[in-house]
Design a protein that fits this description.
Strand order of the largest sheet: 3-2-1-7-8-9
Oligomer: single chain
Strand content: 15-25%
Largest sheet: 6 strands, parallel
Number of strands: 9
Distance between the termini: 7 Å
Structural class: alpha/beta
Order of helices and strands: EHHHHHEHEEEEHEHEEH
Length: 234
C-alpha cells in the first residue's frame, strides 16, 4: 500500500463544475487576448484592464459548485490512514476548498486574493480591487495586483511542491493538459523519487509516458470509484 499521496489538479476538474478551461475556444480568455490579461507586462501597462477582468472572473465563478471528483478527494483525505493526501492545483478557483479539501497548494494563485507589489503582503478578500485600492499594510495606493501568476512570473510555493513530490509514493494527475511547464514535469519528478503515477483525463496527455496508468473519462465519474478501490485495499 502507498504512503503519501499527491494529487495534481488542472482545469479539467473545474470544467466539470462549469468553469471553462483557459485553452478552450470558449474559455475564460473569451474576447480577451492572453497578452492583454495574463502577462505581467499587461499589468504594468494597463492595470485597470487587469483589475476589471479578474473582478469579473471572480464573480463569474464564485457560484460554481464542486463536483464528485472534488468530494472524492475529501473522502480520501479523511479516510486514508497510510499517509498524507495533498493537493497541488493549477486552478485559481476555490472548488477544492468548497469541497472540504485540505493541504491545498495553489501554484497559480487564488482568485480571492490580491498581492501588494510594493510590500509583498497578500490580502484575502472577495471585494473588487482597482487602481485606487490602498494596501492595508503599507498604505500605498495603486500597487495591488490580483494574486494570480501571470506569464512572466514564477509559480508559487515551488519549494513546498518539490518536498511533496519527493515524499509521495502515489502521484495522481486529474484534468491536466500536460502542456504547461513546470507542472508537466511533476509526474516525472515524483516517478524519479519512486512514486507510482496515474492520470485521469478525457484523453491521454502529451506527457503520457510519465504515467504508469491512464484512466480516460470524466473525472467526476472515474475518480470516485478509484478512491473506493484505494480505501478498500487498506
Amino acid at each position: 500500500m502507498y504512503g503519501n499521496i499527491v494529487i495534481l489538479s488542472g482545469a479539467g476538474i473545474s470544467a466539470e463544475s462549469g468553469i471553462p478551461t483557459f485553452r478552450d475556444c470558449n474559455g475564460l480568455w473569451n474576447n480577451h487576448k492572453v497578452e492583454d490579461v495574463a502577462t505581467i507586462q499587461a499589468y504594468y501597462q494597463n492595470p485597470k484592464v487587469i483589475h476589471n477582468f479578474y473582478n469579473q472572473l471572480r464573480k463569474d465563478i464564485e457560484d460554481k459548485k464542486p463536483n464528485p471528483a472534488h468530494f472524492a478527494i475529501t473522502r480520501l483525505q479523511h479516510e486514508y490512514k497510510n499517509g498524507t493526501v495533498s493537493v497541488i492545483t493549477q486552478n485559481v478557483d476555490l472548488l477544492h476548498e468548497k469541497a472540504g479539501n485540505v493541504n491545498v497548494v495553489h501554484i497559480h494563485g487564488q482568485i480571492d486574493q490580491s498581492v501588494c507589489m510594493n510590500c509583498g503582503k497578500i490580502i484575502t478578500s472577495l471585494e473588487d480591487t482597482s487602481v485606487e485600492t490602498v494596501c492595508p499594510f503599507c498604505h500605498i495606493q495603486g500597487k495591488m495586483k490580483p494574486n494570480i501568476v501571470f506569464f512572466g512570473e514564477n509559480l508559487l510555493s515551488l519549494n513546498q511542491v518539490q518536498k511533496l513530490l519527493s515524499e509521495c509514493r502515489l502521484f495522481i494527475a486529474i484534468g491536466t493538459s500536460g502542456a504547461v511547464y513546470p507542472a508537466n514535469t511533476f509526474a516525472s519528478n515524483a516517478k524519479y523519487y519512486g512514486a507510482d503515477t496515474i492520470e485521469f483525463n478525457l484523453h491521454e496527455t502529451i506527457n503520457h509516458y510519465d504515467f504508469d496508468n491512464h484512466i480516460v473519462g470524466p473525472a467526476g465519474q472515474m475518480f470516485p470509484p478509484y478512491v473506493e478501490k484505494i480505501l478498500k485495499q487498506i
